[in-house]
Amino acid sequence: MTDDKDMFICRCEEVTLREIEQAIDEGFVTVTDIKRVTRAGMGLCQGRTCTKTIARIISQRTGKPLDEVLPKSYRSPVRPQKMQAVENEEFNDAKNS
Amino acid sequence: MQRILEHPILGPLPEEEKVTIYVDGEPVEARKGEMIAATLMATGKPYFRKTVKRHEPRSIFCGIGRCTDCVMTVNGIPNVRTCVTAVEDGMVIETQMGFGDWGGNDSK
Fold it and tell me: Are A48 and B79 within 8 A, CB to CB?
């Protein structure tokens, strides 16, 4: 049986709403906590799609404001890059970014 | 799915040079400069990859290079976002299973 709770919140790591709500009920109440217990936001896209959704789910379920729930800063790289770009500043993968 | 030949605002689809790409071994005609995902959608390819955990089919989702749902193996390199990668003549595209395969000793 599938219902609304089986919808994917993190598409990359295939984490459902049910799993995220369970984690919140167990006391994990920031996006960073949820990431560490469910892997949501650790996939290929690095949370570009789900960070804000998860923040809202936590906020609605716990009543905390979004500021307290969201990560304090974004870590680089903001766009996916090949490791070559870290090694060599000249390397520009513009075709693929 | 097929291409929009008559767009209500953009008008008729202009003529464009054709290139050939190979999708899972089959030659497919593509419009030069378009994204790989556009070609595949026009040919009606049912899915681009299967997911790692549940082995479910995935295709285009965001279409702007953020979500990575449309990744495929392109010229032997897995996890290439097909919605933001332009076709090139002779490109080899493969449906990706899970994280894909780097092909042994390839150090790229």
Answer: no
Residue A49 near chain B (CB below 8 Å) = yes
For A69, the domain range is: 4-90
Q: CB-CB: which of B51, B54, B68 is closest to A45?
A: B68
Residues A37 and A21 sit within 8 Å (Cβ to Cβ):
no
Structure tokens, A40: 């949501």
Residue type, B100: G
CATH number where A81 lies: 1.10.10.1100
With respect to residue A38, please indicate whether it lies within any of the assigned structural domains: yes
In Å, the largest CA–CA distance within chain A is 52
**Per-block average pLDDT, block size 10, for chain B (108 residues)?**
89 94 96 95 94 94 91 93 95 94 62
Interface of chain B toward chain A, CB-CB under 8 angstroms: 51-54, 56, 58, 61-62, 65-69, 71, 79-81, 84-86
- Quick check: pTM over 0.95? no
Size of interface A-B (CB pairs under 8 A): 34
Segment (H or E) for B101: none
What fold, for B17-96? Answer: Ubiquitin-like (UB roll) (3.10.20)
Q: What is the pLDDT of residue B7?
A: 94
